[in-house]
Write a structure and sequence with these properties.
Number of strands: 12
Oligomer: single chain
Number of helices: 4
Helix content: 25-40%
């Protein structure tokens, strides 16, 4: 059975700023673009946390809701909420079948959360997931490293997705950027 997929998400901490970007493309199977304007990056927890998803859309929304619940349960403690979500995701028989990944961030932390129980904080303050994730990651690392003080986190996040969209057929130029 064919599934809907939502793709590229990029997040960066840079010069004390936080920004996350995502494209708008939703692909059905491997051949049909069903939507160009999906919103895969959102502010949650009273605007203090950014979350972005890649993978099966219904699965990602389920994870969004679960993560928001964990944030509420642990009073906005991002690391604790992410670890508890990953533990539940990995151990629950139904949740284990979910095909999606999350990037979550606040002003202090940036984390990747996966269904295999992984909660990863990057060394360089940059994460990317989805079909165009590796392209966006490479672009973002280069932009951050060589921009000096010329680019903001928001500009790096947007430019990284623009570069990924030029290379990846599952990433479009309808880019949403959120910042904290």
């Amino acid at each position: 059975m064919e599934q809907f997929h939502a793709t590229t998400i990029f997040a960066v901490h840079h010069k004390g700023e936080c920004s996350m970007s995502g494209d708008g493309q939703v692909t059905f199977g491997n051949a049909v673009v069903m939507k160009h304007t999906a919103r895969k990056v959102r502010k949650i927890f009273n605007g203090r946390v950014l979350a972005g998803f890649a993978g099966s859309v219904a699965d990602a929304f389920t994870l969004f809701e679960l993560f928001e619940g964990k944030l509420e349960e642990y009073n906005g403690n991002l690391q604790r909420a992410a670890v508890e979500l990953a533990k539940e995701w990995r151990s629950d028989k139904m949740l284990r079948k979910l095909e999606a990944m999350l990037i979550v961030m606040n002003r202090e932390s940036l984390l990747l959360v996966s269904g295999t129980g992984e909660v990863i904080e990057p060394d360089d303050g940059i994460l990317a997931i989805g079909s165009g994730g590796n392209y966006a990651l490479a672009a973002g690392r280069s932009l951050k490293k060589y921009s000096g003080d010329h680019l903001s986190a928001k500009e790096i996040a947007k430019a990284s997705l623009e570069i990924a969209a030029e290379i990846c057929v599952y990433t479009n130029h309808n880019i949403i950027v959120e910042e904290l």
